[in-house]
Amino acid sequence: MLGHRKNKWTPEEEEALVAGIAKYGPGKWSNIIEDPEFAPQLLERTNINLKDKWRNMKTRVGSMEKSRTQTIKSVSVSFTPAKTSPSNKSSPSS
Amino acid sequence: MLGHRKNKWTPEEEEALVAGIAKYGPGKWSNIIEDPEFAPQLLERTNINLKDKWRNMKTRVGSMEKSRTQTIKSVSVSFTPAKTSPSNKSSPSS
DNA sequence: CTCTAGGGCTAGGGTTAA
DNA sequence: TTTAACCCTAGCCCTAGA
């Protein structure tokens, strides 16, 4: 029955999310949760959860910065799309 | 900017799509967008877009109809493959 | 190669719970 | 009431198969 309340985000999860965004860029939620570097911290999260959390984090930073119990205050994601990325999915023309 | 991510369908586009399906039958997406009768209204759409939109419209009607701006409520496409007499069976049983 | 069918994904609005 | 967390769905992309 009520095995479904709310699952609050922990600082570890938030950090994993931010680190994932820094690596893949924002919007690559499935990429992040499947990365073995972040997956362990985000086992209980879906790509939708990541998207929603990021939306909340951005809203918070853009409004106020109480920096009281703030774990992460700077959410600036540099995200440098390295050209050395091995992810090449070009299909050879027939 | 990678362009606008979402391009909402207008009532004119939806009508053109439905009319196209009524004429060629569902699944003939390329046929529809190339028809001079519907092309003007579907200039910004691809055959894939038509397919996806039709999928959404079908799902919607089969579940609920609480749309505010309900432009098209009946998406039943009779589609009579006969090249002659357009047998329009508007009779809802009995 | 072209086209369609279907799965997968994200963005944004809406809803719920605290 | 406010709001973090969660849900729903329109629209797009990717790929396999015909």
TrEMBL record, chains A, B:
Subcellular location: Chromosome; Nucleus, Nucleolus
Domain Myb-like per the UniProt entry, residue ranges: 5-58
Signal peptide: none
Domain of life: Eukaryota
Region (Disordered): 78-94
Compositionally biased residues, Low complexity: 85-94
The name this protein goes by in its record: MYB transcription factor
Included range, full protein: 1 to 94 of 321
